[in-house]
Amino acid sequence: MQTIWLSGAEWFAVLRIGLGLWWLESWRHKDKKTWFAGGGITWAAGIAAEHRWPLVRKGFERFVQPHPRLMAYLVAYAELALGLGLIVGFLTPIALVAGALLNLIYLVLMIHEWAEQGQNLMMGLVSITGLFAVSWQTWSIDGAWGLFG
Prior knowledge:
Radius of gyration: 17 Å
Structural class: mainly alpha
Mean pLDDT: 93
Largest sheet: none
Low-confidence stretches: none
Helix content: over 70%
Number of strands: 0
Order of helices and strands: HHHHHHHH
Shape: elongated
């Protein structure tokens, strides 16, 4: 499909790269000192404690709260890896699925935080669109190396 400026595949690559920049910004804007000291997990614990779904509360208490430092590093560096992977197009289908799952987790955890919902929904939608549009075939390491056919 040819458009005025770029082909359809190139536009999907632009969308993928934009999503990568969005993830990179999510990583960049964190106050790393506070975040890695447990500030982010403490904030999320407050949201989870008041969550209307008992499964979310119990899951957070069981898996995240006992390991605040590990989870802080896991979240921050997952966002960094997603951003870099999507920008350069390396292991792109894996990054798109992982990003969609991370956005789903954020969406479920912050179901009452309406300011965050738009961002998570849009990022999830772009991830799914990039996955079904095989956005890794253009302007990517995956495409150059012939990964993921």
